[in-house]
Amino acid sequence: MGAGIPLAKGAIVPDDVSRHGMWSSRWLFVLAATGSAVGLGNIWKFPYITGENGGGAFVVVYLLCIAAIGIPIMMAEVMLGRSGRQSPINTMRSLIRESGGHRSWSVIGWMGVLAGVLILSFYAVIAGWAVFYVFRLASGVFEGVDGSQSSALFGEFLSNPWAVLLWQTLFMVATIVIVARGVARGLEVAVRWLMPILLLLLVGLVGYAAVYGDFGQGFAFLFSFDASRLTWDGTLTAMGHAFFTLSLGMGAIMAYGAYMPSQASISTTVVTIGVLDTVVALAAGLAIFPIVFVEGLVPGAGPGLMFETLPVAFGNLPFGAVLGTIFFLLVSFAAITSAISLTEPALAFLVEEYNAKRWRVAISLGAVCWLLGIGTVLSFNVWADAKLFGLTFFDLVDYVSGKIMLPLGGLLIALFAGWVLNRRIADEQLGFEGLRREVWDLVIRFVAPLGVLVVFGYTIYQSFG
Ligand code: PHE
Q1: Distance 255 CA to ligand 1 centre (A)
Q2: Ligand 1 pocket, CB under 6 A
């Protein structure tokens, strides 16, 4: 994707390219979208929320949400983005015009911009932890540690707001530098190599967990279905996470879709991305839980889970310090390829609207997210006891963005794509005919929206009813 050709406001953009640049092939779109999808959500968040929600039954609901809600909505986002070829807000505006829909559908774009800012604010903090762990593993402090020593080391780091702030700042600056320069070829090429290496290392860690951890118990925890452990709040968490992990509901994939070549098949591309994302999450779970059980740690330890368990593995492996350093480096990389996509909807919009320079917009946006992120930094120390509705600042931002805004955004996207969007556009983009077209209609009009509504409805009913 290039830096973008400056155009006057209101200039007519040639039909099939975006002014912000284009992915050079379908494969690069897959890489970029996978880079967006695979991130802290898979390696950090998925295992810890699975732990907090009792394991297997939660995983089943999550997988169902990916298949029945996530994949179709991702197809819808790519389709909308590619037919509009602008930032999500302006894409929505022009599709509304072409389809004769009500103006208020553009809320999809606006809410996405806001969700992106909220998510990036805490995302950079957690990514900062991962960057710190690159150095911490390299230093060799984890040599020979057990679970409780590793937990203590993590707790000590978290309790120092200045340290956490430093690493958050570093990550934010790195993100802004990359974003400001436009997602250069360098990154695309890097992702091409780093994603496979990350996956390989994860598989290696699963191997370690199988040999040295309690693999049977870890596996059973992840995959044995025990319906009695399922709650409506857990179901909402699973659904929210399906959106989060696939980067859906806030326009990131719509923005990336705007730079996708027209001839590529949306359905195969999206299924590839969904499968890769799921494989990474499950591998992370299989690497983490066997260690949790053998070390006597608790699966419901919360956001620190990955930082407490994996260093135990690395600390006790031959060449563990080197492997651990590489691992956290890759996690940081996975995080930054996601962070970039969180800024794209807002960035592209501001560039279009004010014809502003990309780097200026990037810096301002970064500053806002950084400031807001300080609330998350403090949530783990100074403000740990400051709670609203029983939630810390971090919990609150995470809740509102992940459990409300993303699913709501996804719901609106499905409804718009299924009921409002001009039929010709959908047919052109998806290339579905006959039975496939009917199945698509059924899924995007009913299955996906009803899925979101049922989970929303029941959770509200359970909490207030
Ligand atoms: N999908 C990313 C992850 O799993 C997070 C993300 C959410 C990125 C929403 C973009 C948009 O880490």
Answers
A1: 13
A2: 36-37, 39-42, 119, 244-245, 247, 250, 252, 338, 341-342
Q: What is the C-alpha to C-alpha distance for residues 121 and 374, in angstroms, rounded to an integer?
A: 8
Which helix (H) or strand (E) covers residue 102, if one does? none
- How far, in Å, is the centroid of ligand 1 from the Cα of 145? 32
The pTM of this model reads: 0.93
What digits encode the pLDDT tens for the residues 168-218?
A: 999 999 999 988 887 656 567 667 777 788 888 899 899 989 998 999 999
**How many angstroms does the Cα of residue 250 sit away from the middle of ligand 1?**
10
The alpha helices in 101-260, defined as continuous H runs, are: 107-138, 147-158, 161-180, 185-212, 215-223, 232-245, 252-257
Residue position matching structure tokens 């695309």: 188
Report the C-alpha gap between 339 and 280 in whole angstroms: 18
Which three-class secondary structure state does DSSP give residue 362?
helix
Token duo for residue 89: 């807000």
Atom of ligand 1 nearest to the CA of 40: 12
Enumerate residues 6+ apart whose C-beta is below 8 A from 416: 76, 80, 92, 95, 101, 105, 108
Which residues contact residue 428 at a Cβ distance below 8 angstroms, ignoring those fewer than 6 apart? Answer: 83
Query: Residue 220: which of 420, 55, 37 has the closest Cα?
Result: 55
Q: Give the bridge partners for 391, in sequence order.
A: 388
Distance 238 CA to ligand 1 centre (A): 14
